[in-house]
Amino acid sequence: xxxxxxxxxxxxxxxxxxxxxxxxxxxxxxxxxxxxxxxxxxxxxxxxxxxxxxxxxxxxxxxxxxxxxxxxxxxxxxxxxxxxxxxxxxxxxxxxxxxxxxxxxxxxxxxxxxxxxxxxxxxxxxxxxxxxxxxxxxxxxxxxx
Length: 145
Known about the structure:
Distance between the termini: 41 Å
Number of domains: 2
Largest sheet: 3 strands, mixed
Low-confidence stretches: none
Radius of gyration: 17 Å
Helix content: 40-55%
Number of helices: 6
CATH topology of the largest domain: Arc Repressor Mutant, subunit A
CATH superfamily of the largest domain: Winged helix-like DNA-binding domain superfamily/Winged helix DNA-binding domain
Structural class: alpha+beta
Shape: flat
């Protein structure tokens, strides 16, 4: 994975060890086209023959999150999901309510102007935001017809 050298450097600079499980989690997330739950990550580690338990996965996710390598994604079902922080910028998600497919979507201005308006109007400093769109993907729309 092209990010591994930067991620390794970031972790080592913080005094962290480069463990097989930690790097496998980064690799799994880098190959995924959607945010993954800790349970999905645990299953993927098991498939790779890496012995890990739920506590280990959560601990490793916490470390990766602390170093801004991954971030938590919140959907309406309140299930924690994680994805790598995208070098190409902030993005949102399209979530199909039928098949649960998740797709990234980005906006040219990515709501920066809205955040500035919120500051001007309400004196509220936005530190982060979450915006997901829920509906039916094209395939599920065809199936419903």
